[in-house]
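Hi R.,

Here's the input for the pyridoxal-5'-phosphate complex you asked about:
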Amino acid sequence: MTTIDAVGLQTVMARIDSAARAAGRADRISLLAVSKKQPASAIRTLAGFDQKAFGENYVQEAIAKQAELVDLALEWHMIGPLQSNKCREVAEHFDWLHSLDRIKLIAPLARYRESTQAPLSVLIQVNIDDEASKSGCDPEAVGALADAIAEKPSAMRLRGLMAIPAPDPDFVRRQRAFARMHEVFNVLRRNHPTIDTLSMGMSDDFELAIAEGATLVRIGTLLFGPRR
Ligand SMILES: *Cc1c(COP(=O)(O)O)cnc(C)c1O
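And here is the predicted structure with pyridoxal-5'-phosphate in place:
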């Protein structure tokens, strides 16, 4: 049994819209449905309500679900930490990667992206404030990573940045982390004017992320209910 229904999706989309209006935003904010640890049947249900973009953290799990859902035209986003030995599968099976955080991932991703595929859309994951986390690069490393991605135009296309700020009960500290990400994004856009995506905000904090400039929010629990 799934807990998903059209009303749940509409409620999330309405909250996204009102957060955008409150922030005076005129651009459209994308919803990524995070389906990790949810069955393929739950993805199929949401796809039936016209939700097409899904985020997964585990490559093997994602590929198994993609095989069950080949009849649907979905957009797959890899959002979990990426190990180098998974670059080939990510290049072959995903449309987006949100978690590029080191130079050495770029060559294998480019090598395995087939020329028949569209370039992989890539976000650089930035460790904006969470010293305990090993994922994400330093904000100072973003420029060099972006330039290296831009050197592989037939295999990958730099779309912007992703962050998972440390869960912090202090509202102001969380807000500042999102605001700092927006600054890093604006600085990067000076040299890479075509970037269009700032991926930040999850079930508990997406409205705050939208207020601070997110263009894409990644929502799991609020759409699908608790994970298995
Ligand atoms: C699991 C996950 C999400 C979704 O989290 P919820 O709190 O369930 O909305 C978003 N982004 C990343 C990177 C995740 O790993």
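One thing worth noting: The mean pLDDT is 96.

Cheers,
M.
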